[in-house]
Design a protein that fits this description.
mainly alpha, about 90 residues, 3 helices, about 70% helix, rod-shaped
Amino acid sequence: MAQVDASLTAVESHTAPYPGVEEEATAGRRPECFSSTLQECLFVLMATMSIGMSSILYGSTTVITAPIGRDLNMTSAQITWINASGA
């Protein structure tokens, strides 16, 4: 059992980021770039909305290609360029 404890201690010391230095407790602390909870929430909202808006734009481009192609008498190869321009 002593050998197992010694080997676990050796593994732990090699996996620590800085052996011999205690880690600073950072759980629950706000990143330095945000000065308030509101700022943090707005950042998450903006990141989420940007992903959603790109999906909406791509979807609307895909939906509108059929009427555009029909009105302009385009071939399916030409309609493909409409979708390629939105990507």
